[in-house]
Amino acid sequence: MEAKTWALGEILKPERRYIIPTFQRSYEWTEEKQWRLLFADLVATADRLLQRRLFAKMTDSQPDEASVSPHFLGAIVCDSLPYPAGGVALRSVIDGQQRLTTLQLLLRGLLDVVQEEDVDGELKGKAKSLSKMISNDEDSGASPEDVYKLWPRRDDRVLWPMVISDHVPAYGKSDHLYLQARCYFAEAARESLSQSVGEERGERVRSLVDAADTLFKLVVIDLEKNDDAQVIFEVLNGRQTALSASDLVKNLIFLRAEFAKAEHLELMYDRYWAGFDDPWWKKKVGTGHAARGRRDVLLSVWLTATTATDASVGNLYGEVRAYLDREKPKTEELLAGLKAFAEAYREVYAERQVEDEVLRRAYDHLIQLGNLTAIPLLTWLRTLPDTFVGSDEHRDAVQAVESFTVRRMMAGSGWGTRNYGQIFVKVMADAKAAPLGGVRDAIVAALHEAGWPTDDELRTAMLGNNFYGQNQKRQRLVLGAMDSRLRADDPKQAPAAVDYSKLQIEHVLPGKWEKHWPLDESLGEVERIKAMDARNLAKNTIGNLTLVTRYFNGSVSNLGWADKQPEFAKQSSILLNLGIAAVPQWGEVSIEERGIALAAIAAKVWPSAEALGHVPSTPESAEGAPGVG
Fold it and tell me: What residues does the GmrSD restriction endonucleases N-terminal domain cover (predicted)?
């Protein structure tokens, strides 16, 4: 490669065009982060030049402008493009497109002000100088677009001629960033001139133009035949606006693409990648340092599923590059696979319609439970053809993932989620290795091996664990799913759309029971302490918890059973409450009996591995909770 430092005017005044590839990211620089600093740099550079000129004028000497300190703007990387005979020389901007675009908008805003100030024609030369850095001569090219020094990514090519034209648009805050930038730089130039009048004002205009022309410096790196554009891009990118892993991967894919013609590359971009420019994909998810754009999350999901290894978010680009170097997939096949994963990912997250109600509900439950380690597996399953995984097998496989997750959550801390990353990578690997018709069985077997609570373990947990200690979203999910199952199993119940997320969690025996739920006064001190402990344990188990609507009279929550029982009788729209209202006197025995009944319902909603057809290789193949994670 050849690298050389040039003044901005030396780069832009020759008859040449700089083309921004379609796959480059959209323009993102803003006033707060870049424009304001750039214009401040221009003013500071112009001040140095103006001071040198004023000193020379005062001393009646020639200004030594060559000794004025320039301002270094960074680097751009360009690659030559073929162009037709009689056309303008073309350069593809591999890196630095945000910077080069901003400089064009700075020059355009500055030109607006020069044209305003040139009332007597004395600034005509400066206006012409700026124009030559924005536009080529109209008769210099073979096509109408040849007049533009910079030609943006294809999505912006309809807008750009208006952005760069002599016509000053009516600006608004909702305008494209191009227009906002032009407006900002023009206003900033006017502000910098506001304290100057007469001859001094004209000199200040000239110093701004000349500083941009001759003292703004860029390193231009021109690639040669054997240069790896992506390696150079990686070294130089992100100095101003950090690139995401997906931006880096996109550039890697398209810079290395084996397409012979630019038109083919643009076709592939439109067909497979353009959808990722949607704001939904750019939105960050997660919090703090873990926040990532959805495109990066998808990339991690795709790589985890493709390689059956746990992709490192911190080194995502490096791992994708290593995979591409190792496997060398065809570009179109790679892009088609990513697009298929993107569509499946949106379906898992309910951004695209999923017709199957069982799958739709399972996805929602898993996301609410926070089991994001299962997303690569769920997404991969959606990309498989029906001829490989039929609809019933697909449904059973996803139900297995949900059941495994819910049962372990219900079973408590001894089971945990600490090793979920490793568990689901192993499940992914086993599923990918499965033969035709064997994906479901492979997933069920792998989850069983990882520690899938049995019906007995589930019942024990539901009778003894502090379910109220779970967050309320999880409580509503579990109770709501069981109520929904009761409704589905009762032919007398008409279908009803209940939004369980808006219902309230209610203790049947109150959390503060001491005043209105007295213990047997005949108990001795030791027995009384045991009874208190038993009640305090029972009150937060699932057998004592239910869902109530907003019509439930909250004022009776801590009152005795005589006051609460009638309120539960009014809550018949929630089937979980029918049995509660029928109990003559609520207490520890009632709580245990209801816990047993709910455990039986839960076992149907979230079946065991055996219920889903798993046959252990040996009777003792599952070790249970200890040591599982």
Answer: 9-254
Rounded to the nearest integer, the mean pLDDT of the chain is 88
Query: Can you give 342-395 as a three-state secondary structure string?
Result: HHHHHHHCCCCCCCCHHHHHHHHHHHHCCCHHHHHHHHHHHHCCCCCCCHHHHH
Q: Count other C-beta atoms under 10 Å from residue 273's C-beta.
A: 19
Query: What SS3 state is found at 591?
Result: helix
- CA dist 427 and 489 (Å) reads 32
Are 209 and 251 contained in the same domain?
no
**Encoded amino acid at 197, one letter:** V
17 and 92 housed in the same domain: yes
The H-assigned helical ranges of 257-327 are 262-268, 279-282, 294-307, 316-327
Q: Which residue has the tokens 């990513």?
A: 338
Answer yes or no: are the C-beta atoms of 232 and 77 closer than 8 Å: yes
| Together in a domain, 124 and 250 | no
Q: Per the domain annotation, does 617 fall within a domain?
A: no
Asked if residue 183 and residue 102 are part of one domain, the reply reads yes
d(CA 381, CA 375): 10
Rounded to whole angstroms, how far apart are CA atoms 424 and 428?
6
Burial class (CB in 10 A: 0-12, 13-18, 19+), 57: exposed
Rounded to 5 degrees, φ, ψ at 261 are -120, 150
Helix then strand then coil, % of the chain, to nearest 5: 60, 10, 35
Looking at the fold, whether 188 and 53 belong to one and the same domain comes out as yes
pTM over 0.90: no
- At 531, the amino acid letter reads A
Q: Strands 150-151 and 545-548, how do they pair?
A: unpaired
The domain in which residue 12 lies consists of 2-242
Split into its structural domains, the chain has a count of 3
Q: Domain boundary at 403, 419, 447, which?
A: 447
Percent above pLDDT 70 for the chain: 93
Residue 25 DSSP symbol: P
Q: Are residues 560 and 504 in the same domain?
A: yes
Q: What are the tens digits of pLDDT across the range 183-219?
A: 999 999 999 998 887 788 999 999 999 999 999 999 9
Cβ–Cβ under 8 Å, residues 428 and 380: yes
Which of 222, 242, 262 finishes a domain? 242
More confident residue, 268 or 229: 268
